[in-house]
Amino acid sequence: MQLASTIGLEIHVELKTKTKMFCGCLNDSNEKHPNINVCPICMGHPGTLPVINKEAVKSVLKMGMALGGKIASRSQFDRKNYFYPDLPKGYQISQYKYPLVEGGELNGIRIRRIHLEEDTGRLLHQGEESLVDFNRAGVPLMEIVTEPDISSGESARDFAEELQLILRYLDISSGDMEKGAMRCEVNISLNMGIKVEIKNLNSFRAVEKSINYEIERQTGILEKGDKVGHETRGWDEDGGKTFSQRKKEEAHDYRYFPEPDLPALNLAMLDLGGFAIPELPSQKRERFKKEFNLKDEQIEILVRDKQLSDFFENAVSEFKEAGLPLGSPASKSVELIFNYLTSDLIGLMNSKYLGWDELRVSPHAFGELMAMISKKEIFSRAAKNVLKKMIETGREPNVIVKEEGLEQTSDESFIETAAQKIISLNHNAVSDYKKGKEEALQFLIGRVMRETKGKTNPAALKEILKKNIYPVRSSAERQDFKNG
Ligand code: ADP
Ligand code: MG
Ligand code: ZN
After folding, report:
1. Which of 115, 279, 284, 479 gives 99 a disulfide partner, CB atoms 3.0 to 4.6 angstroms apart?
2. 353: domain range?
């Protein structure tokens, strides 16, 4: 039985402001020592007063604009009252009636609202004891609520992935799900029935899998003629299933009321034109398609990583600056840069555990290296060695090429010396080649390339190797041979 599934998401995002939402404490998710970034305000001491963090408000407004939402002309904070050990004040400052943003859309899914609140502390359960770390208490938290427009686990995942990308492009949050900087809650119902909430999903995979599991589970219940219970469920990653956490017999009463210690925000006067919204992922996809003529999968690899795509673009313009045309055949040069970047440079970075911030190769230097390959000043084999040296030393490619003597060469006597050395050291390969094994020749070519650090012209090398394996005798020699 195929039942219609209705899914809505509630996504919490930790904003990466310098300080917390209502006090001057550092907002540092990397702080390892507990209860360092705390003060009387975020600890909820009596007599303290909160102050609104402007950067956090700006971040939410940027997100609202990026998703095409309507910025409220008047917004207000409310108190959401409940007791829990990670909530020192006994209430959370949130937004209920007057969120900062209403409406908007992403991937065809309508956004209901985006509001701003504060995060709670963190509980740590150790054996008999529970510990609490308040470093996270009061960190700005943006909540994005969708309309129930989603109908499958896959499209929920796509939505969440695109949302994370936008957070990163706007540079308002790391969006790292495994670190809890972006947390998804799924609401799901079948055939207009009771909706179940799934909490604590900390990976895209968990979002998709938990929905698929819930669709099956609820279908099973409905098929038997039973009713789906109104409850909150958790996700068991190892077991690959959801489990009941708490039954929702009646709605919580949070006794929301306007936060008396904070002024309402009058946003009607705000000049939104002053908000620099950068190019968004969807716009970049279109532009890259037009400008670079790459395949969709290639564009996606670039767009998914903002630093990678910035590097790529800058390298391409350096390449053009070196006086090389990208056009005709356009894709050749662009693909050369794309391939070197996504396989060689990224490969080397991964093997050395280097992040973009630690990379000593500038797009300028990288673009120059690509230009040297294009102009056939060096061969691709040598280029790989140069790139490695560039990463290790941070020096310009032309300096490395000169120092290491890696300019390509077709100089016959140079190649011949190397070829003869390799032939004399590899009798087996030579005799295999004589027996007709083509791979043996490739092996010998590889050995000479290594011997000469890749600077040998491969076409010339092939001819010289063959000539030295099957020496063509001069006519005088042939004459001697006959006579002898
Ligand atoms: P609640 O008041 O129970 O939190 P809301 O109406 O505020 O419910 O919606 C919370 C989330 O649940 C939203 O993301 C919304 O899209 C989603 N949602 C609402 N109704 C349904 C439904 N019938 N099935 C699945 N999700 C739903
Ligand atoms: Mg809810
Ligand atoms: Zn504080």
Report:
1. 115
2. 281-404
